[in-house]
Design goal:
The protein is of the alpha+beta class. The protein has a domain at about 85-285: endopeptidase domain like (from Nostoc punctiforme) (endopeptidase fold (from Nostoc punctiforme)). The protein is built from 5 helices and 6 strands.
């Protein structure tokens, strides 16, 4: 696995700070240790900001991404055999949104490098989200406006923020460890084994098959390595997996050796890579 001085996505070497930091790092003034006690985050995205029953604010109380659904009489035009929404709260929906969001962001966020998202250009993510049109675009964007925008100490998009953008966009709420709120800036390795309601944790012991939309977690190796968290965008032959993630690669696709804030979806991994072996993975079970 990553170690200090080698490839890592979520650890920063700061001249003035000796403490370990990473996915994700709180802004200056945030005491992430004491804030872990809070289970009611003050900036939790609302499931219904305008009181209409429409969490996306798009006129779609069904949450399916179909604004026309709000004006149709009950049962009118309903096809019980129709396919589920493209970005449903499911493994397929998570993988599809992750892939589409990476592609759109790498087109809209270019001021600091292709696909780079930082606290000085985070607004570029908004048109990317809007163009992809998940069921809950506002809750997806609220991750960067809440966690990244004010973060002057650690200005790059973290791997945890990307996971939370994707899961909130399709499911209406971001994935976070069961004992921490998403606004507590949990580090990647702090997710391991802590499945919240609506999710299941599978340890990497050879007893379960990986599916698209599963969320891998690398454990920490100690020191300044906070681990890494990422989405399985594609299962390739059952043994290799294409990954959608943030902060693991450079803009050109080469392995990063420092924080980059880059969204990418090209890296291939396996369950038994000696340097990058997942501790396990989450799978959404909420419907």
């Amino acid at each position: 696995m990553r170690s200090f001085g080698g490839p890592f996505s979520c650890a920063i070497t700061l001249v003035t700070i000796a403490a370990a930091v990473g996915c994700a790092a709180p802004p200056v003034g945030v005491d992430s240790t004491s804030s872990k006690k809070s289970k009611t985050p003050s900036h939790e995205p609302s499931a219904d900001d305008d009181g209409t029953g429409d969490p996306s604010g798009t006129g779609d109380p069904s949450g399916t991404g179909d604004p026309s659904a709000s004006g149709a009489p009950a049962g009118a035009g309903h096809d019980p055999t129709a396919a589920p929404p493209k970005f449903a709260c499911s493994g397929a929906g998570i993988a599809a949104y992750a892939d589409a969001l990476v592609t759109a962001t790498r087109m809209s966020c270019t001021s600091d490098g292709i696909g780079v998202v930082r606290n000085d250009n985070y607004q570029c993510v908004k048109p990317a989200i809007d163009s992809v049109a998940p069921a809950h675009p506002d809750t997806s964007y609220s991750i960067v406006t809440t966690l990244l925008a004010p973060n002057q100490q650690f200005p790059n998009l973290e791997c945890t923020y990307f996971i939370q953008m994707v899961t909130s966009g399709v499911c209406g709420a971001p994935l976070s460890p069961s004992d921490m709120a998403w606004t507590d800036y949990p580090l990647a390795h702090e997710f391991i084994g802590k499945a919240p309601a609506g999710w299941t944790w599978f340890p990497n012991t050879g007893g379960a098959q990986v599916e698209v939309g599963d969320i891998f977690v690398y454990d920490t190796t100690g020191g300044q390595d906070p681990g890494h968290i990422m989405i399985v965008a594609e299962v390739m032959g059952g043994t290799q997996f294409r990954i959608a993630e943030a902060n693991e690669l450079n803009s050109n696709g080469t392995p990063a050796t420092d924080e980059t804030g880059v969204m990418s979806n090209t890296r291939i991994t396996t369950l038994n890579d000696p340097q990058h072996r997942p501790a396990g993975w989450f799978r959404v079970t909420a419907k």
